[in-house]
Amino acid sequence: MSMRTPWKHLLASLSGNAPPQGGGLKRDGRARSLPTSPSPFSSLLSPQVKFPAGFFHPNVYPSGTVCLSILNEEEGWRPSITVRSILLGIQDLLDTPNEGSPAQSDAYVLFTQQLTEYRRRVRAQAGRYPPPS
Fold first, then answer.
1. What is the CA radius of gyration of the chain?
2. Alpha-carbon distance 54 to 38, whole Å?
3. Active-site residue 67, yes or no?
4. Architecture of domain 8-133
5. Distance between alpha carbon 23 and the CA centroid of its chain, in Å?
6. Contacts of 127 (CB under 8 A, 6+ apart)
7. Of the N and C termini of the chain, which has fewer Cβ atoms inside 10 Å?
8. Would you say the pTM of this structure is higher than 0.70?
9. pLDDT, tens digit, for every residue of 7-52?
10. How far apart (Å, rounded) are the C-alpha atoms in residues 69 and 101?
11. What's the CA gap between 69 and 74, in Å, rounded?
12. How far lies 32's CA from each of 8, 103, 107, in Å?
């Protein structure tokens, strides 16, 4: 039986492309009240981190699953990894895609070959996912 903790978080871009407006970051990009307590994960299974299906990013599968080594049980996952570390890792991945681990071809090709179009698509997507009010 798999026991995964359902957590929902809003992440804002460190580069300021998505103003937090009540999210988890201050306007200067510093973290605000991110958990620093020990890991809440009691099993050896990594948490499943997903964006909405079809989320446009080179390291997010079409299903919305995030491709990040610290979330992969066969790579960098350890139960001692904190929620804060996971959130910061995802934030960093959103701002700085990992070219060595593509999960979605359209976003990867645009990011590596047509950066202007990639940035346009990211800005358009940011408008579809505004922070909660």
1. 15
2. 32
3. yes
4. Roll (3.10)
5. 14
6. none
7. N
8. no
9. 444 444 434 444 334 334 343 444 444 444 445 555 677 888 899 9
10. 9
11. 8
12. 16, 30, 30
